[in-house]
Amino acid sequence: MKVIFLDIDGTLVDYETHLPESAAQAVRETVKNGNKVYLTTGRSKAEIYPYLWDIGINGMIGGNGMYIEDDGEVIQDLTMNAKDEKDTVDWLNKKKLGFYLESREGLYASEYFLQKTASTLYEGNQKEGEEKIKEMFPHMIWDGELYRSDVAKISFVLEDKALEEAESMFGDRLKVSSWSGTGKKQEFGEFAIKGMDKVCAVELLLKHLQANHKDTFAFGDAASDKKMLEYCNVGIAMGNAEGDLKEIADYVTADVNDDGLWKAFQKYELI
Q1: pLDDT for position 169
Q2: Does this model's pTM top 0.85?
């Protein structure tokens, strides 16, 4: 049995959330062959939509390690403490930064999130950009309570020196990092729990599965996937991956929309 860890955006799907049929078929076939596939992503469970589950994955690592699920069994579900959650929400609101809360049960947007995300990701036509954001986050809750006890991560739109200020204000309490919604640049900052990442979660899941490290494969396209690709026995970068990731990968496959997953699965006899 091989254990395969798949990043989602830029790896399984492109940054327009299109899932190539060859990628879906690769997952179905490798699972049929007795291997296990886990989405390993910055997304929360609430962002793993039915069309992703429907390709036959065995489970997921979400929130960059905050959440772990195997065949419906929840292995880990970490949440921020109430003070950290409140303090970050207060700070983000005071700065009038667009942000959203990520939990296992849902995504909760702030007042400025739609407007500021659209202007950051889709410069030009604001109305068209906002419609695209709504399509990108189809289950976003736009008027929900923002002081919550079930929050694993908080993502916010980057403006000016917001990331540096966030690190200065909260770096001693929370992990502060950034991520991309387009694959072109870092548009979002992120607050998460210190001491947990994709690699820690992979280790916990392997222990739960009683699986051997030598049977692990990791696929990714972004800097946030680097440690996971280095940790797993075989680390594979997509053709559209960032240059630094390609340099450390054991193999660079084709782009996500050029049957990259299918071709790599074939090369390593996973299908």
Answers
A1: 96
A2: yes
